[in-house]
Each structure stands twice: as structure tokens, then as C-alpha cells.
Amino acid sequence: MIAWFAPSTPIWNSLSSLFISSVASGVFALVAGLYIYYFFVDPNDIAAKTTILPQDIKQTLHVIALRAKDYKIFVRTGRHFRAEILPVLVNRACQTRCPIRVEVVLLDLRDKDLCEKYANFSQGLII
Predict the structure, then answer these.
(1) N-terminal to C-terminal alpha carbon distance within the chain
(2) What percent of the chain has pLDDT over 90?
(3) Secondary structure of residue 72 in the 3-state scheme
(4) CA dist 55 → 26, 52, 75, 105, 111 (Å)
(5) Tens digits of per-residue pLDDT, 16-32?
């Protein structure tokens, strides 16, 4: 509208070009942001959503500890991690002389769905 109704002077042409470039860069930023949001997924998020069956936990955690460069685990208390997995990670770090970044996240017991999953898991171990 500025280009259509404004007189053809250098100031109005500059203002029109500035406005058009601002709108174009804003549209590009929105499209690029939506593209990144839709198509790019954090691999750590995918790995964090992996569920291990109760009967396979001990073996799977041991295999992961033997191969891991980084180790992130969500646990209720961490007793099994401290007793069995942490020594494996320490031995591996000493043997390879490479640090292993370990992150242990205690489960939030205020999350009702999570507590139900843990209760079902615990009942599966008892039976």
C-alpha cells in the first residue's frame, strides 16, 4: 500500500523496501521455526522414552553400562544403580581412561501416571 499510494520519492521507496524486507524476514523466521519444530527431534528425548520390560532390566542396564559414553537413568531410589551399574561404569571409565557422564534422575512421585506405571512394574516383579 505504501508503494501504491506514496509518491515516488527516495524516502518513500526506502520506507517501502524496509517494510517489505521486515515482513519477508518475519515470514521466513516463522516458516524456519515451524520447520525445525516439526522435523527435528532430539535423540536424547527418543532414548529417554525407551521402556524396558521388568524381566530384561538387569541384563539391559548391564549391557548399556558396558557400551555407554554417557549414561542417563530415571530411577525411584537408585539402589540397583548404585550397587550394580555404577561399579561397571567406574571400571569401564578406568579401563578406557575416558570420563563417562552419568545423570541419575529420581522419579517424581507426584506424577500420578508415573506412580501407576511403577506400581504395575513392582507387582510384575513380585508375581
Answers:
(1) 75
(2) 12
(3) strand
(4) 53, 8, 16, 22, 24
(5) 888 889 999 999 999 99
